[in-house]
Hints:
The chain is an alpha+beta fold and about 475 residues long. Helices cover about 65% and strands about 10% of the residues. Residues about 1-25 have low confidence and may be disordered.
Amino acid sequence: MKKTASSAVSYAVLAALAGTVLCPVTASAMSLEEALVATYTGNPQLLAARAGQRATDEKVPQALSGWRPTVTVSGSYGRQTIEQNTSTTTERKIGTVPQTSTFTVTQPVFNGFRTVHATDAAENTVKASRGTLVATEQAVLLAATQAYMDVLRDMSVLELRVNNEQVLRRQLDATRDRFAVGEITRTDVSQAEARHAGAVAARAAAESTLASTRATFARVVGVPAENLDWPAEVKTLPATLDDTISMAENQQPELIAAEYTARAAVDTVQQVRGELLPTVSLQASSSKSWNASDHDSYRDVQSLVATVSVPLYESGSVYSRIREAKSTAGQRRLQVDEMLLSVRAQAVQSWETLQSARAQISSLVSQVDSSRVALEGVQREAQVGARTVLDVLDAEQELLDAQVSLVTAQRNEKVAAYQLMSAVGTLTAEHLALPVETHKSAGHYDDVRGQWIGGNDEADQDYDYASDPEKQQPVKEPEGR
């Protein structure tokens, strides 16, 4: 209950600070959920990662092709002239038109278990790629969240800067009037002028910062940042630090990707080792040859041949590649160990960052309230001569600083919550229950895994997009090349 009350107070204070910036949601406002949906469906980085996943899926049917036969048809056509000249015959020339056609089927029977291990490696590579895709999805959605909250923060800060500039403008005018009647000194006027000039510069800087964050928002989300709405509190977070670490260890996508990459490296060792074993294949062929100038002359040949090949010495290349693959497998396993430590550390850091941000909000709400009360008191005391112009300016600056800090802390708390979700692997469209059809990597994989021949609609769409002349950018070739 205490956390809920604190959150309610902070929202109320922020609404008072930012005016219309943090107003209640309107019909035209874009919620954070809508921004995440737009990012999920249209972000080029995420779409490119999905295309890369589809390309990786093809490694499995490529590996499975080691079980399948190859079928070839060949033919030849030519002209041949034979000159005959012996002691018993006169010289003569014989013209022929030889033709041949051959149909061959080759079926691998045994290749040292290379196909088995190549398939295992490919399947683990696909699973690793899926983990990488989820990591990309999390990174993109987190970037969208950060961009969304940055725009909200900078809109609020700009509102505060504009209000402060207006207040200091009125303060400067009043100071000049008092100086004109001899109530204060020229020094007081200079102090008011300096503070107003600083407020003008701060407002200009805030406008520039907001323009920059709006540009970042458009780049990540794909739509302009208009009428954003301050999001509600995130509900689906781990309850304790132990829960955070446990979730991260079990479902953080980068750790999953590293694990399957390490398994694929072990499979690769076995695949290369298979090159030292014998291979067996069957080849069936049917061949026909004839002379087109003599239709009665032809020859049919059918054959079925079993071939056994036993490698005796491979010039040391295979053994070198085995050693290389073993070292790579060790490297990949050590990278998993390193990733596990990194995931744990990131989980702890994300948890502590969120707790710190929440604590700061509670303190800053009190600071804003106290600074406002202090300013009102200093202003009353200044009216009776007990305080100077500088005292009033300092009190106004302290209130402004506290307000800006509160807006920044509120932004940091929201971003920290989503960073925590990313650290434990739940910052995905599925876990967020976004109202969008989620991408299913298994669908494309199932379509192509057992495909023996032909194309694929998604691959065709990828190629059509890549080869579309309208998508090509009018880049200039580098000079001197």
